[in-house]
Amino acid sequence: MSRLREVFARSDRMVGRPIAGEYVLVPLVGRGADVDSILNLNRLGAFIWEALDGERTGAEVVDAIVARFEVETKEAARDYEEFIETLRDLKAVVPVRPPESLRLRLAKAVPAITGV
């Protein structure tokens, strides 16, 4: 299932911080997160994490990945969707319902990315 039309926000169960030259996602144990879920992110993972602001769709994040990392759209979309699934499994992100104007814009934009 494609997540490119969906909007995600970072959960309050995890925080992301640069530590000693690395970007780390750390669970907040007091908020029900699993302490074994610490993730070291590469540059792409950190970029995606920071982009999950509750306002941008997956397709918009993919566009930003393509511009920043100079990769093909299909590769960026695949990487984004794989990482989002990992974050969803950890409950590190929450879905956000986009406003109607954004949903209409997406209906036109997403097929160009997915090739549908």
Residues in helix, %: 40-55%
CATH topology: Arc Repressor Mutant, subunit A
The radius of gyration computed from the alpha-carbon positions, rounded to a whole number of angstroms, is 14 Å
Order of helices and strands: EEEEHEHHEH
| Anisotropy-based shape | globular
Structural class based on helices, strands and sheet pairing: alpha+beta
Structural overview:
The protein has 116 residues and is of the alpha+beta class. It is 46% helix and 24% strand. The strands form two sheets. A three-stranded antiparallel β-sheet has the order 5-1-6. It has a three-stranded antiparallel β-sheet with strand order 2-3-4. α2 (58-69) packs across α3 (73-89).
List keywords for this structure.
single chain, alpha+beta, Arc Repressor Mutant, subunit A, three-stranded antiparallel sheet
Can you lay out the helices and strands and say which pair or pack?
Layout: E1 7-10, E2 14-19, E3 22-27, E4 39-41, H1 43-51, E5 53-57, H2 58-69, H3 73-89, E6 93-96, H4 100-114
Antiparallel strand pairs: 1-5, 1-6, 2-3, 3-4
Helix pairs in contact: 2-3
